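In this supplementary section we document a worked example of the pipeline. Step one takes a protein sequence of length 486 as its only input; no multiple sequence alignment statistics are reported here. Step two produces a three-dimensional model, which step three serialises into C-alpha cells for compact storage. The input and output of this example are shown verbatim.
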Amino acid sequence: MTTDVLDRDAPLLEVPVGNAALPASTGAKLNSSSHNRAKDSRDAVLYGPVLVTLLRLALPTVTVLVAQTAVNIAEGYYVGSLGTDALAGAALVFPVFMLMIMMSNGGLGSGVASTVARAIGAGRLEDADDALFHAVLLAIFVGALFTGSLFVGGPALYRMLGGRGPALDAAVTYSNYLFAASIPVWIVNLQSAALRAAGNVKVPALVTLIGAIVTIPLSPVFIFGLFSLPPLGIAGAGLAFGLYYAAATLFLLAYMLSGRAGMSFRVVRPRGGLILDMLKVGIPTALNALLANLTVICITGAVGLFGTHALAGYGIAARLDYIMIPLLFGISTATLTMVGINMGAGQTIRARRIGWTGGVVGSFLTGTIGLAVATFPTMWLNLFSSDPIVVSEGTTYLRIVAPAYCALGLGFVISFAAQGTGRAIRPLVASIAKTGIGAGGSWIAVAYLNAGMTVLATMVAISIVVSAAICVSLMLSRAIWRPPAR
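The serialised model returned by step three reads:
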C-alpha cells in the first residue's frame, strides 16, 4: 500500500462487501471480529432505509448530548448563583471554549471522520485503522496550542471583548482551569469522531453520558466547597470539567487498544497522505468553526459596549444558540458517516438523498425548539437570572434570533453532508458570509450607529438565514456530488 490514502490501484481480493472489493492488504484482517463489526455497520449504511439508519446512528449521540446540554444548563445555574460578575465572566469565556469543542468535534473531527468513513466505504480498513493514531498526533499538537495560547493571551482577549474588573478576573480564572484540559478534550473528541465514522456510536455516547452524570454533581462540590473541600468559586467549574476529560481519555484509549472498538488502534509510522486527507476536510471545516465562533466573539464584544447586564443577558441567550449545536451534532455526524461511506462505495445518488434527509431532520429539530423559545423566552432566561435588565436584554435577543433556528439546523447538517463527500470549501463560504453579516454588521450597527440589542439580534438572524441558503446551494451542485475518482 502506498502512502497516499486515496490510492485505489492496489491489487484487489474478490471478497464481496457491499458493491466494492477489498484491497488484498486488508484481506487477513477481515477474519477479525473487529473488522466484521465494521463490515456489518458498513452494509447497513449502504443498503438500509435512509431515515431509519440515520436515526439509529444519530439517536445515541443526540440522547447523550441532551444530557451534556443539562451539564451546560446546570453549570450556568451554578455560576449564576455566584453573581452577575461571574456570569459575565463565563459569557466571555464561553465562545472561546465552544470554539475548541466545535473545532475538535466538527472541525478536525470532521476531517478524521470523513477519512475513516470514505476508507471504510471503499474497503480500505487498514487506512481507517491507521487514522486512529494520526488523530491522536493531531489532538496533542492542537490541544497544546489551545492551552498555551489561552494561558498567555487569554487576559488580553477577554479585556478586548469588554471584560472589566471582577468580570475580567472571573473570566481569566475560569479560562485557565478550563483550557488546562485541552489535550484530553481533543483526544476524546477526535477518537470519538473516528468511532462514529465506523458506525460505533454507542461508546462515544456512553463516554459523554457518564461525563454528564459525573460533572453535574461534581461541579458544585468544587464551586461551593462541599464535603469539607475549600470553595473554589468559578474555578471549580473548570476543574470538574478537566478531571472528567482526563478520565475519559484514559478510558477511551484503553478501549481502542482492546480491539473491541470495531477498529484496531496501533502506533504506526506517520503517513503524509493520510494526514493530508484528514486536513483537506479538517482545515476548511476548522476554519468554518473558527469563523462561527469569531462571529459570536465579535458579537460578544459589541454587546460588551452595552454594559455588564446586557453582556450577562446576551450570554444566557447565546448559550441556547450553542446548545443547538450538540443537538444537531448527532444528526450531522450520522449524516457525514452515511454520506462518506456511500461516496466511498460510489453510491452518489443515495449519498445526496442522505444529505437532504439529514438537513430536514435537523431543521425540524431546531425549528421546534426555536419556536417554543421565541414564544416563551423567560422560561429559559429565568433559569439563570432574575435580574430584570438581564432578562429584558436576553428576551429581545431570543424573540428575534430563535425563529431562525430552523435555518440554522438545515444549514448545519447540510454542511456536514458536504464534508462527507471530502469537499469542504463551499461550507466555508457560508461561514464567511455569516461572519460578515453577523459580526461585521453588528459591530457597525452598535459601534457607529448607536443601535441597540434589537438591531444586533436582527443582524444575527439574517446571517443565519443567508448561511443556510448558501449551504442549500451545495445540495444542488453537481460538483459536490460527482463520483469519487477510481
